[in-house]
From TrEMBL:
The keyword Repressor does not apply. Belongs to the SdhE FAD assembly factor family. SUPFAM superfamilies: YgfY-like (SSF109910). It comes from Sphingobium chlorophenolicum L-1. Pfam families: Sdh5. Transmembrane segments: none annotated. Keywords: Chaperone. The keyword Chaperone applies. Signal peptide: none annotated. It comes from the Bacteria. This is FAD assembly factor SdhE.
Amino acid sequence: MNEDPRIRRLQFRAWHRGIKEADLAVGGFFDRYHAGWGEEELDWFERFIEEQDADIMAWALGTLPLPDEWGGPMWDKFAKMDFVEIGKK
């Protein structure tokens, strides 16, 4: 468990979004990449998770245009969605 309260708080918020799809997307993104983030990336993510789940998912799926403020390397990683694991039943 990470001892940094900021990291613990961000991880909790990333995985407790309100809808399962956003939990998997935002939480999965955090888990995959946060270890390599510096202050700038953590600040971006902290602002990003304040957005509505429906907007985040629509941007990721391309059904809504991505606002300019989110574009860049962090979004490029998020938009790949290669960190979302979908189980089979």
